[in-house]
Amino acid sequence: MKKNISTLTAVSFAAVLALAACGGGGGGGDSGGSSSSGTSSNNGSSSTPPASTATSANVTTPQYAANSAQLAVFNTLNQQRQQCGFPAFVENTQLDQAAQAHASYMGQNGGTITDSEVAGKAGYTGVTYADRAAHFGFPGSGIYTGGASAGFYTNATLTEPEYGQRIAYAWMSGVYHIAVAALPVTEIGVGWNELTYNGFPEVQSSVSIANLQPLAGNLPLTFPCQGTTGVPYLSGGETPMPPNTSGSFGMPVAVVGNATDTIVLTSGTYTDTSGNVIALQVLNSASDPNQELSVFEAVAYPAAPLTANTTYSVSLTGTRNGVAFSRNFTFTTGNIVG
Asked: Which residues contact residue 125 at a Cβ distance below 8 angstroms, ignoring those fewer than 6 apart?
């Protein structure tokens, strides 16, 4: 799976978001950011993960508490994923336990955002996302398991759903974390922990995701896609930092096929409503110096922030398994920082 995500600021308040994410079967993760803006990530594997089938701990109706941050994470990710043709997440109670254990681990160890855990530290349940899922009974053999982690702090008063939405949108805006919205997986668990800093909540959150499934429709799919609205115009950065960026960048676009595909992007542009053309950085698994991307996904992103509440026309070209494709669509940013 994919990575982490970014830092958050707004005119009316100071906010900090740190992230981490990990993927593929049993890949480990590296440490994330702490009290300053930044993220960390580790894909765990750049090879094609195995496809898999649904597990028995799924629930048909989400069991997260009403008005909870966890439910907001779940609903926000699903709303954005489904409109672009990606499968809906189903809550899995074993993945919930794994994600909750990792969120608690981060809280018990100073609030540092990290993908991995260290044996012997408080709350340890497994080094990787896959290890922690297996610890709580999730089947490991043949089932792709990954995840992402994030932290958030602001000195403004937010509701629990607002905290959840902020973290979900932050994952969406990262070059190495957008896959939380775009990976073709069907199962999720959401973990949430809160400490207090200067009288306000300091959040540690984690998601565990699993079960790669074939995509339907005209592949490859993209996120954002035609008609997507409200996505962040700015990402405050990731660790590792995507190539050719410095501190912050604009909302990326992910291009994703099936787990057996090889996706290569060759060019990409955004054009705003005034006709300004923005050349995008193009990142494929073979060209990614951080070795975070899987072969069935690619990402294009602007090296500088976009503009809030603005519609952008997207033009992409590339190949899927050597066959040329192009994608042209529009999406609209919100007044959101990821």
From this structure: 98, 101, 102, 105, 117, 131, 132, 135, 136
